[in-house]
Amino acid sequence: AAAELKDEGNRKYNAGKYAEAATFYSRAISADPVRAGPVYGNRAACWIMVKELGRAVDDCREGPKLEGEDSVELWKLRLRLAAALVRQGRFAEALGSLREGVAKAQGLLEGGASARE
Predict the structure, then answer these.
(1) In the 8-state DSSP scheme, what is residue 115?
(2) pTM of full prediction above 0.90
(3) pLDDT single digits (tens) 10-42
(4) Which of the listed residues 2, 22, 73, 95 has the most CB atoms within 10 Å of its CB?
């Protein structure tokens, strides 16, 4: 059920229906909160598009809590967090988030993890 809800959210997002997509992503998160880390990133993208930047920042910070801070797959969340922070004029915080993400990804890749989309 969560995968289908996420897929429908993706269709809505690709059609430019960001608020509707956010609703489907929210339902996907509720349907499978344990594996919802990346879905928070999708919903954050919606929040950025509808200029709900505070909500985007919140989602970008929630995703890694579920996936684990050491997940290479969360690079999109870090990019979206930086994008939302830049739009809020929080440049130093955005840069710090990106630097932290790069450092974590490098450590994971050097340790044998592989980056996947």
Answers:
(1) -
(2) no
(3) 999 999 999 999 999 999 999 999 888 889 999
(4) 22
Pair of tokens at residue 49: 């598009």
Q: Round to whole Å and give the CA distance between 88 and 107.
A: 29
Which residue from 20, 26, 37, 39 is spatially nearest to 71, judged by alpha carbons?
37
Q: How far is CA 104 from CA 10, 11, 37, 57, in A?
A: 28, 31, 17, 19
Q: How many Å apart are CA 47 and CA 57, to the nearest integer?
A: 9
Q: What is the pLDDT of residues 62-74, one digit of tens each?
A: 988 876 655 666 7
Asked whether the beta carbons of 94 and 81 are under 8 A apart, the reply is: yes
Residue 102 Cα distances to 1, 39, 82, angstroms? 33, 21, 12
Looking up tokens 């993890």 gives 113
Cα 104 from chain centroid (whole Å): 16
Residue 10 CB coordination number (10 Å): 15
Quote the CA–CA distance of 96 and 48 in Å, as a whole number. 19
